[in-house]
Write a structure and sequence with these properties.
Elements (H helix, E strand, L loop, with lengths): L1 E2 L5 H4 L11 E6 L3 H14 L9 E6 L3 H8 L4 E4 L3 H13 L3 E4 L7 H16 L4 E3 L7 H10 L2 H4 L12 E10 L1 E2 L2 E2 L20 H12 L10 E13 L1 H8 L12 E2 L2 E14 L2 E12 L7 E7 L3 E6 L9 E6 L5 H16 L4 E4 L4 E5 L8 H18 L6 H21 L1
Parallel strand pairs: 1-2, 1-4, 2-3, 4-5, 5-6, 7-13
Antiparallel strand pairs: 7-14, 8-9, 10-12, 11-12, 12-13, 14-15, 15-16, 16-18, 17-18
Helix pairs in contact: 4-5, 5-12, 6-8, 8-12
């Protein structure tokens, strides 16, 4: 069942067919341009040349879509991606009704939502259903490789404690309001620019980055909120003139609910944020930036560094890398580092990533060349996460660290939001 698909991620989940999932989608939503965009994308997937899907959609257009879905209950999983302000209420009602939840991030955008989220997990446990948020970035090849190298003491050593100025682990994500999705210009709903609906950037995209910090630095470990200490956080706006807003939303004027964010006729939307915190005593930094449009030939970018006692693992995605993610390993001076690195790649890395090679770039820097077959792109990661979730449904549980770490992840983003608002 797909509920109120206000974000294109709802469609990307269905860009692929899954043997465990019936081909009928039960759609519950209010009528409007957002649901029509969802339907158009599903139709494009059904008619694509390569591996066309075969989804059939049972449409239920009504203003009382949530209650109708719960009353009908034609499936056992609710997929939701849309207004972040409403999402946690959808989740809460679904688990009360004994439905599993598969939701786009973020599940929450404020303190009130965090309290509801904790309650939702309690009810889900009681009703034996699963709540899962869609963490696509765990499947990005350079991130997977960065994590893998960080678990190899002969190359990485161990994660340093770091400082605010030089954190042990940093993640920075740069996004763009205007971009291409599934080969077409993305049209965003006007409410996407309202932080009361979408949430600040510091609680939205940072969900992925905070998740990666936990997942890479402390793999398979349970992380509690007491393991987090927020040190510094800030937020700032991206400024959009009307013509830019119109290009990305197809609306000729700013709607009434964005008037509060207008200064001198330009929209100030708090899409950008940064947080510095410690997690189990290790310093971490997460930042997200939103620009209007990427320069020609570029797109959303990602930067990350993990600092070890023997080397640094650095992901870059700039002009030098042709705006494609590349992992570099920077030695901290060991004389036999190159031979160790080559041996590890040959004996360990190629088991999971066959064909991976090492290329020396300078005195102390090597580039890890990951074969193209592992670089499948952001849209394809949705199928990988979905297949993971379907496996969890089949066994009836998540890994023991997933739920506490989901709660701590949102505790972290909300702590940063509260501190940034105070400042």
């Amino acid at each position: 069942m797909v509920l109120d698909p206000g974000h294109f991620h709802a469609a990307l989940v269905q860009k692929t067919m899954y043997p465990q999932v019936d081909s009928t989608i039960y759609l519950y939503a209010p009528e409007g341009p957002e649901v029509q965009d969802f339907l158009s994308k599903i139709e494009s997937y059904n008619t694509q040349e390569e591996a066309p899907t075969q989804w059939r959609i049972e449409k239920n257009f009504t203003d009382d879509y949530l209650n109708k879905m719960i009353a009908d209950k034609p499936g056992n999983v609710m997929v939701v991606a849309g207004k972040n302000s409403k999402k946690i209420d959808y989740v809460l009602e679904a688990v009360k009704a004994g439905l599993n939840v598969y939701a786009d991030k973020p599940l929450i955008i404020n303190t009130e939502g965090f309290e509801k989220l904790k309650k939702a997990f309690e009810i889900a446990k009681k009703n034996d259903v699963l709540i899962y948020d869609i963490m696509t970035e765990r499947f990005e090849s350079t991130t997977m490789m960065q994590k893998l190298f960080s678990t190899l003491p002969s190359v990485f050593g161990e994660l340093v404690d770091g400082t605010i100025e030089e954190p042990a682990i940093s993640k920075e994500s740069v996004h763009h309001f205007f971009k291409q999705v599934s080969g077409s210009p993305l049209v965003r709903p006007a409410w996407f620019f309202d932080v009361n609906e979408e949430g600040d950037g510091i609680v939205d995209v940072t969900t992925h980055l905070v998740d990666l910090v936990q997942w890479e630095a402390f793999p398979d470990q349970i992380i509690d909120s007491i393991d987090i200490e927020m040190l510094k956080a800030k937020r700032w706006p991206t400024v959009l003139p009307l013509e830019a807003f119109t290009k990305v939303t197809k609306q000729e004027s700013f709607p009434y609910y964005l008037q509060k964010d207008l200064i001198d006729g330009k929209l100030h939307t708090y899409a950008n944020g940064e947080m510095n915190y410690t997690i189990k005593g290790k310093h971490a930094k997460v930042s997200v930036l939103w620009n209007y449009e990427a320069p020609q030939g570029t797109g959303d970018t990602h930067y990350s560094i993990m600092r070890g006692t023997k080397s640094n693992l650095i992901i870059k995605q700039g002009a030098t890398e042709n705006f494609k993610s590349v992992l570099y390993i920077e030695s901290k001076g060991s004389s036999d580092f190159e031979s160790i690195l080559n041996r590890v790649v040959t004996n360990e890395i190629t088991k999971g990533f066959p064909g991976t090679t090492v290329e020396k770039m300078g005195d102390n820097t090597w580039k890890i060349n990951i074969p193209e077959k592992f670089k499948i792109g952001h849209e394809a990661h949705f199928a990988q996460v979905t297949e993971n979730y379907l496996n969890f449904l089949e066994v009836g549980k998540l890994p023991n660290w997933e739920i506490p770490n989901m709660i701590t992840k949102y505790y972290t983003t909300i702590a940063a939001y509260k501190m940034a608002k105070q400042d």
